[in-house]
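Run: sequence + adenosine-5'-diphosphate -> complex structure.
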Amino acid sequence: MSSEQSLSANTSVQYVKGVGPKRAEILKKSDVKTALDLLYYFPRRHLDRTSVTKIRDLTKGITTTVVAKVEAGGMRSARKKKYYQLMVNDNTGFMKCTWFNAAQYMEKVFSVSDEVAFHGKVDFYNGYQMVHPEYDILSDEEREPLNTGAVIPIYPTGESLKKMGLESRGFRRIIKACIDAYELDELEFMSKEMVDEQSLSPLTSALQHIHFAPDVETLSGAVRRLKFDEHFFLQLLMALRKTIITEQSGRTMTEVGPYVKQIYETLGFELTGAQKRVLKEIRTDMASPEVMNRLLQGDVGSGKTIVAILASAVAVGNSAQVAVMAPTEILAHQHYHVFKSYLDAVRVPTALLVGKQKSTERKKILAAIQEGRVNVVVGTHAIIQDEVTFQDLGLVIIDEQQRFGVLQRGKLLSKGDNPDILAMTATPIPRTLAITYHGDMELSLLDEMPKHHQPVTTRIVEVEKIEKVYSFMAEEMKKGRQCMVVYPLIDESEKMDLEAAVEGCKRLEKQFSDFVTALLHGRMKREEKDDIMDRFVGNEIQLLVSTTVIEVGIDVPNATIMLIENAERFGLTQLHQLRGRIGRGSEKGYCILVQRNITANSRKRLAIMERTSDGFEISDEDLKLRGPGEFYGTRQHGYPKWKIADLVNDGQIIRDARKAAFKIVKVDPHLTDPANKKIRLRFMKDYQQMLEMVNIG
Ligand code: ADP
Ligand code: MG
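>> structure
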């Protein structure tokens, strides 16, 4: 195929000039199948010639880029080890580049007078040198202008790509050919007005300039446009999902009812300002004819439970039923206990529904729910089973909602006639992440701790000093307090981890022979777990050794010390959750992080735990250090992978893209307007797998 013939979206990449079937085969492995994929194969970074360091100006220890010509290269040896060394020159001085590994291979890479960009750390050894620098050959026989611009694209290239001649230089050639032959104008999906309104680069020039930009400003315009696009389509998904919910008319629960006031009087404390504000937001939603879809975020201990109870009281006051769904049995039990204690006092009937109840007991409960004799049902996902029918479900409360899939949520909703939804999470989600992945929900924030709350003191402890910690624990237990020791068991099926916890428990039993020690882990039977928990709550057990099953759940006000083993293996957010389990009574709490596998990064991460007890700050740091994928686990599977957008740096772009997407959907809720046809097509292409969640006509 000649370069005159034009390429379009579905043309196989093989037909791009310079690619051919063999390279196409390899490109496929990098998810480049079509000419369009190749256009969207963005540089890993750009080399800005204006920010290159002259050899004359190098100093030892800096990491930088040098662009220089190859003067000579060859194999050397020292102490019988061969290595490859280049001598390069940039008219201001000489530098050596040295490869100890793969010396044989390196010998074939460079030719004399090649112009090469070297990127690496500078050291000094008989002159300046870089050891194993990244390199990118800029010039070649044809002296293509592609390689001499001010901003040079450096592409991600693996070994197999390099072997096919597709190092950065090779990519520059085929991408240039692709751009030249592609009808780029066809790709624009935004109207001229929208492009102007958002001060964006047109897509055509953005796609050209992301690869070949004359200067840094033009490049950053291209980056902004392409990031905007990725955020825009995700926000469009959110806007469309939100439409589905809000289009249905919900019930209006305008009654205040007697229960709210009655419960309020039994509280024994004043609600925090944040609790009052959030309750108002919830009540406004419940009173409006639209369906409520609200996410309540609040740090551990911020008082979400009482907010949920008061919201339930509003629903019951409007003669609707309430379902409260928790992700684990322990948590369901605890919620039930708290809900019941408040609701019994005002004579609102409650019930617990979990997996392992006796069938006679279960039948009774199911009948009571169906006949409306029970107003508030607390449980696990047992609530969404088919045989559970409500007489009139009006409010659904989902605790730790990130642990439930979209489908489970949907199933719960189908038990009522468009019930209101209040989702809760104690995992503080950074704002950018929240509006990105929960952009279809309204957000409420409990950003104020109850007054009595005193922060837990956190210390990182090296293994050698652990004896000191043990004596501190013994002292506290002598005073009548309790301790917890947590072992990492990230996946309940990890055998080694479980063994470590069992072993640890045996050791601690000996260490603290004056006290009662017990082990709790996820593989135990529920009765066993409950029994141990009951005994721990009753202070029959002073030292509880456990795996992460205690992360959500138990509340033992008398527990003051938590020691976390191999703390470096936990995510910060998880550590924060664990830490929230102690210091819930009147005595001060201590959290000891035992670090066993020390790296610079793990030390830095754990130091954040010492420094702050603000869950939002912690989750922000966690997001920066681990990236959103890790942070959010595998939950986000199914969303298209971003090529250029990211959550850490794109705050403003996300907000702009969100506004733009919601504006369109507000006027055209099913994207049926011909003016939005191109947006709609691109959306359907990118979000194929998620179309069932939306209704776009
Ligand atoms: P969360 O579920 O957000 O972790 P909880 O609702 O369990 O927090 O509240 C933690 C503790 O603080 C509970 O013992 C609760 O009774 C108490 N609490 C909640 N709100 C207040 C408040 N405004 N003033 C004092 N104590 C409160
Ligand atoms: Mg709670």
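>> summary
The radius of gyration is 31 Å. The first helix runs from residue 20 to 29.
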